[in-house]
Write a structure and sequence with these properties.
With 124 residues, this protein is an alpha+beta fold. 15% of the residues lie in helices and 40% in strands. It has one domain: Immunoglobulins (Immunoglobulin-like), CATH 2.60.40.10. The strands form 2 sheets. The chain has a 5-stranded mixed beta sheet with strand order 1-8-7-4-5, with no helix packed on it. Strands 2, 3, 6 and 9 form a 4-stranded mixed beta sheet that branches. The protein is globular, with a radius of gyration of 20 Å. 17% of the residues are buried.
Length: 124
């Protein structure tokens, strides 16, 4: 009986220790539609805004369910995607291990900013 209790206690400790060791990701969804001349920009992360390399950037359908195109940021945190011919806001999702996923809508405008500036946060 005592051996069963000890094994159960050890199992609970392993389960709690394992879940505490993994970062929890919160998906951040930008409420405002961003304007840009192109579907490109720089991504940084953290308080000191370090360039975020190897971030997956996905162009998604208007409902967000289908990935239409995908790329990764380079060593300087830069990405570029060719926009589709469809009009209206485009949906982007940025993600990577250890980073809170970020979703935003982008409207391509001739007089918009030259490119997007996106700030990500580390998963807590």
């Amino acid at each position: 009986m005592r051996a069963t209790f000890v094994l159960l206690a050890v199992g609970v400790c392993f389960a709690l220790g394992d879940s505490a060791g993994h970062a929890q990701a919160t998906v951040f969804v930008e409420a405002k539609v961003a304007d840009s001349r192109v579907l490109a920009g720089h991504v940084d992360i953290g308080v000191v805004k370090t360039p975020a390399a190897d971030i997956t950037v996905e162009l998604r359908s208007s409902d967000g369910s289908t990935v239409l195109a995908s790329t990764k940021t380079d060593a300087n945190g830069y990405f570029h995607l060719d926009p589709p011919k469809s009009r209206g806001p485009l949906h982007l999702r940025l993600s990577a291990p250890g980073v809170n996923p970020y979703e935003l809508r982008v409207r391509i405008k001739k007089n918009g900013p030259a490119e997007l500036q996106i700030h990500l946060s580390n998963a807590a």
